[in-house]
Amino acid sequence: MTEDQRIDTVSSTHDAGAQPSIEHAASSAAEQSSSSVPTIEMRHVDKHFGDLHVLRDINLRVEKGEVLVVIGPSGSGKSTLIRTINRLETIDSGEILLEGKTLPLEGKELAALRSEVGMVFQSFNLFAHKTILENVTMGPIQVLGMPKKEAEEKAMELLKRVGVAEQAAKVPAQLSGGQQQRVAIARSLAMNPKAMLFDEPTSALDPEMINEVLEVMVELAQGGMTMIVVTHEMNFARRVANRVIFMADGQIVEEDTPANFFDNPKTDRARDFLDSIKGH
Amino acid sequence: MGIGELISTYGEIYLQSLMKTWGMTLISFCLAMIIALVITVMRVSPMRPLRMAGDLYVQIFRNIPGVSLLVIVVYALPYLQLTLPYETCALVTITLVVSAFASENLMTGINTIGVGQIEAARSVGLSFGQILRHVVIPQALRSVVLPMTNLLIGTLLTTALASQVPLNPPELTGMVNYVNSRSVGGIGAFFISALGYAGTSVIIGLIGNRLDQRVRILR
Ligand SMILES: Nc1ncnc2c1ncn2[C@@H]1O[C@H](COP(=O)(O)OP(=O)(O)OP(=O)(O)O)[C@@H](O)[C@H]1O
Ligand SMILES: [Mg+2]
Predict the structure, then answer these.
(1) CATH code of the domain in which B72 resides
(2) How many CA atoms within 13 Å lie on the side-chain side of A60?
């Protein structure tokens, strides 16, 4: 997609999909037309792990600047869903498109595509032998061919933005979980991704560290980043999500605005699930 | 013959033998590390034939006694129109055996790296080769300093294999045979060579420990 097309997309009129309400911080970013090319699109995606049917006919559009929250019981296929988007998992059938282009199968193009979609994992996954700074510069230097000095300047800026600039010379094991996860976000951002995927980014964190990570994610959302977030943090979803999808048994069972979904779930399954997580 | 007498008579050849043992250890260990790196990359590659070839290599050379392998190298290679000097035969044998064990060490090192780090590297857009070079191999190497130290000591001791072929000067064990064939050195001659092996091993062990402390990855 060229720069002009992108500007086009942003200025075109908004309609259904994400009904922005006043409380939606990201509402301005969701000025989309459903006729424009979505940033991420999944069409009739199916996937099995052996006999287990983990994704069943998944259809999904995520517009530029949209924040989508994925919620659902353990084993429902949430991780698998977002992992297929940067092809950490293959699919059996269907199609996944990024800005209208089908995912390449392998090789250089696949690596290039992966660098355009950031991924943040539950377990941070920082490179244990590298300093915080090196964790952030590795992608830009190795994949984008950026000169080291420029990469370091940019990395320091990003580390400052996520609030861990003072830790730049340390190694991951010297940081708290919350700090590590913020570094992981900076590492993804360093690649200038078109979209970011988050797989339960706060569920491995001690309670007092959850907010510092969520704050960074809220800022990202408000800055217009296209995001798919697997999370059970309802407050986060209410604050920044344009849409919530509820998954069960590999299917998208429900899809709605956060307010509608959390206050008036349509299906019994969603209601039971919400009761179970509210109970904690 | 007492030890003092042994040393005064054979001191110089003893020193030469120690040098020979050290040299053979160094050469075969360095070659083995390079080969092990290649074999290990094959064993983790996405291509099945390469993986199988790498595994086969390790199974063969890890599971044949060094002496048998030496006999094969010395007596079988000439049938392939390849006649190597005895010392080269010994070096080849030691290198093959040690590289198989070194590859096993590296595989253990690779297995200590969480699959998550590799997925993170993939999602940043690094290629398979870049992931190996920048994420997997540096961490694998740093986590196997102690096993590799043991293997270096093992290499040192394995050079005794070369006492089975005529070398000039002989390595330590060959030297003992030589001394004992000329005079009644008895246990004393063995004692001197044992001292050479043990002294070297202790030093290698100390250096290995220091190195491990320095490069160990915090987790
Ligand atoms: N590599 C794999 N091989 C086989 N089965 C797998 C694999 N990964 C996931 N599964 C199975 O696929 C199903 C969906 O898994 P997935 O991780 O996508 O669920 P999830 O919704 O993310 O669950 P959780 O909330 O526990 O993270 C589960 O039943 C899981 O056991
Ligand atoms: Mg999951």
Answers:
(1) 1.10.3720.10
(2) 37
